[in-house]
Design goal:
The protein contains 14 helices and 12 strands. The chain is an alpha/beta fold.
Length: about 350
């Protein structure tokens, strides 16, 4: 007996990270010739009627990301006794708290999605562990479906003919507090003052609660929002990429930086660590809020080159999208059988 069809519900058109993930699953299932459905309408009213039309014939509804529309879809699915899988890209409640923009309504909606889902999938093993600690009441139904990486798209971006200066550091995340770029600034200020270095920091990303503090440092060049097509070129002009997030469920920017030839320094609170091989303790930040540790790790990273070691030890087949799509099918198949 063939498995009932999967119905994928979630944004796949916008340039956001979750939308790119949803699109990758849709494209991957199409390449395999799988029978599945997805919500294709763009207008709200049309999406509602498309939900009503496609839900009855679907065996499982797969919700990618948080939205009020997805909560509505879950409610309809439960009425029709359909299995519901919720792919959780982040924690709306916690991230809003960190970024100093709490939203009780969004937090309630997210919690209701956690309640209604038959299975909650984190986008990394690290995030799965965090969710189980944050929501012990849902621990039995939390697992993970790690994001794939489009290594071919990232490619091995060639550096410019001239190597970047050893003083050039870059980070992506703008003024968003959870990225903790302000702590990178504090560490660089310490290095420049105590060791008489001339390190610089380029920051890419939207404004946030930390933007004013970051702008006060004279060695910072803040580029703000940058078109994605320009980012590889900019990364290639820098020696070291730092991801100092206090909470990062995956972190594709790290992998892009690695592909652009950057040495990398990464917080242990980043889900993308599972996609990388050859990591050593000196490559990892234990406490993103400790400028002293950061200063030591930055100085150590600039004394050597970890890019060749990590690149050589990373198995791209294990973290590619083909693996992720295969895992999606296995998980959904087990979930549907478990509901019979």
């Amino acid at each position: 007996m063939s498995e009932p069809e999967i119905f994928i519900i979630g944004d796949y058109r916008s340039p956001t990270g979750p939308a790119k993930v949803t699109r990758a699953y849709i494209d991957g299932l199409k390449r395999r010739g799988e029978h599945f459905r997805y919500l294709s309408s763009q207008k709200k009213a049309a999406r509602f009627f498309e939900l009503l039309a496609k839900l009855p014939g679907s065996g499982l509804t797969f919700f990618s990301g948080y939205s009020r529309q997805n909560l509505l879809g879950m409610s309809l699915s439960k009425r029709l006794k359909k299995s519901c899988v919720y792919l959780m890209h982040g924690s709306v409640e916690y991230e809003n708290e960190i970024n100093k923009v709490p939203d009780p309504y969004m937090a309630r909606c997210e919690y209701r999605m956690l309640e209604k889902a038959d299975l909650v999938l984190a986008v990394s093993q690290w995030f799965e562990g965090w969710l189980k600690e944050r929501y012990p009441e849902f621990k039995a139904k939390i697992g993970h479906l790690s994001n794939g990486v489009d290594w071919e798209s990232l490619g091995n971006k060639a550096r410019a003919e001239k190597d970047p200066p050893d003083t050039a550091i870059i980070s992506i995340g703008g003024g968003m507090p959870r990225k903790r770029i302000v702590r990178i600034c504090e560490a660089i200020e310490r290095i420049n003052r105590e060791r008489r270095e001339k390190l610089t920091l380029t920051v890419i990303g939207d404004a946030g609660a930390d933007s004013e503090r970051i702008a006060q440092y004279p060695f910072v060049r803040n580029l703000g929002m940058v078109e994605s097509s320009r980012i590889p070129e900019i990364l290639g002009q820098h020696r070291l990429y730092i991801q100092n997030s206090v909470f990062e469920t995956f972190g594709l920017s790290v992998l892009e930086a690695l592909s652009c030839g950057n040495d990398i320094l990464i917080s242990k609170r980043c889900g993308c660590l599972e996609a990388l091989g050859g990591l050593e303790e000196g490559d990892l930040i234990t406490d993103p809020d400790d400028p002293e540790e950061l200063a030591e790790k930055i100085s150590g990273a600039l004394k050597g080159h970890n890019n060749p070691r990590i690149t050589a030890a990373t198995d791209r087949n294990l973290s590619g999208w083909d693996r992720a799509v295969e895992e999606l099918l296995k998980i959904c198949g087990k979930t549907v059988r478990g509901q019979r």
